[in-house]
């Protein structure tokens, strides 16, 4: 069975096909199946230092000492970062690190744990 995408308007997972259209029963939003396929292809793909694809909620490990602006200490090699969130931009990982707080990291300085 083919996995249907969630509704882009309300996020409902109960979408169904009606001819060439996809329909959300909760908010009555209709969109074309072709547009849904294009949006899945345009999703953000972030790779770590080893080339593994990262996704939201992953745990990563820092592979290099990183200086933190405004902090007297650096982020040490081997620091585990749990529950990451992927974002657009140069620093494409948004996370919270114990002892440092909210922070953005570049994916080239982490590896998937």
From TrEMBL:
Residues 46-113 form the Protein YjdM C-terminal domain. InterPro entries: YjdM, YjdM_C, YjdM_N. Residues 3-32 form the Protein YjdM N-terminal domain. NCBIfam families: phnA. Belongs to the YjdM family. This is Protein YjdM. It comes from Trichococcus palustris.
